[in-house]
Amino acid sequence: MSFNIYIPHNLTFPDYISIIQTARAFADGYDLKDSSRLRATLADTVTADYSNISRALGCKTYSKEDFIATFLSPHALGKKDLLTQHLLGQPYFVDVTADEIVVEWQQVAGHGKAIRDGEELSKRTSVTSDGRSYMRQVFGRVDGGWRIKALKPSLLFETGDFKEVTKSSL
Question: What value does the mean pLDDT take over residues 73-98?
Answer without folding.
Answer: 94
